[in-house]
Amino acid sequence: MTIEPDQPPARRSDATRAAILEAARARFAAEGFRKATIRAIATDAAIDPSMVMRYFGSKDGLFAAAVDIDLALPDLAAADPDQLGELLVRRFLALWEEPPGNEVLRTLLRSAVTDDAVTERFRTVFAEQVLPAVLRFGDAADAPRRGGLVVTQLLGIALCRYILRIPPVVGLTREALIADVAPTIQRYLVSAPTQ
C-alpha cells in the first residue's frame, strides 16, 4: 500500500495566494481600496489575516498585486489596417466582461477618482501598454494625443456601462457597441495631428 504525499508546500502556497487575490479583487471591486480591510479579505479567503500580510506585506502590496493587469492588446501591426478600431474595442469589452480583468478594471476605475496611487497605476498601464500599441500607427510624435483620445473613449464607455450602469449603454449588445464605437477608435488610431 502506498501513501500519497500531501500536496507540495509550493502548491498550497500558490492556492492560498490565488484565494487571497480572488477575495481581494472582489472586495476591492465592491468597496474600493479605502473601505476594504485586510480582515474582511482574509475572512472572504477563509484564512487568518496574518497570512495576507505574509504573502503581500501590506494592504498596498495586496492592492498592487490584485490590480496588476496585462491588457494583452492584440498585435495591431499584424492586423488589417481597416479593422484596428474594431479589434481594440472588442478586446476592451472582453477585458471588462470576463474575469479576472473585469474585477481588476472595475476596482481601478472606481478607486482612481479618490486615490492618487491608483491614478498612477492607470497612467502606468497607459504608458506601458496602450501607448506602444498606438505608436505603431501615424505620427509617433502625435501618439500620446491619439492614445489619450482612445483611452477617454474606452474609459467613458466603461464608466457608463460597468460602473454607473446607464440603461441605454448597458442595453447595447456587444456587437452593437463595437459597431458604434470602433469607427471613432479607428479614427483616433490613424488620424493626423490637428493644427
Distance between the termini: 81 Å
Sequence stretches where pLDDT stays below 50 over 5 or more residues: none
The 3D shape can be described as elongated
Largest sheet: none
- What is the residue-averaged pLDDT? 86
Number of strands: 0
List the helices and strands and how they pair.
Layout: H1 9-35, H2 38-45, H3 49-56, H4 59-66, H5 84-97, H6 101-112, H7 116-135, H8 143-163, H9 167-171, H10 174-190
Describe the structure.
This protein is mainly α and 195 residues long. Helix content is 72%, strand content 0%. It is built from 10 helices and no strands. The protein has helices at residues 9-35, 38-45, 49-56, 59-66, 84-97, 101-112, 116-135, 143-163, 167-171, 174-190. The mean pLDDT is 86.
Task: Give a quick precis of the structure.
72% of the residues lie in helices and 0% in strands. It is mainly alpha-helical.
What key attributes describe this structure?
single chain, 195 residues, mainly alpha, Tetracycline Repressor, domain 2, 2 domains, 0% strand, elongated
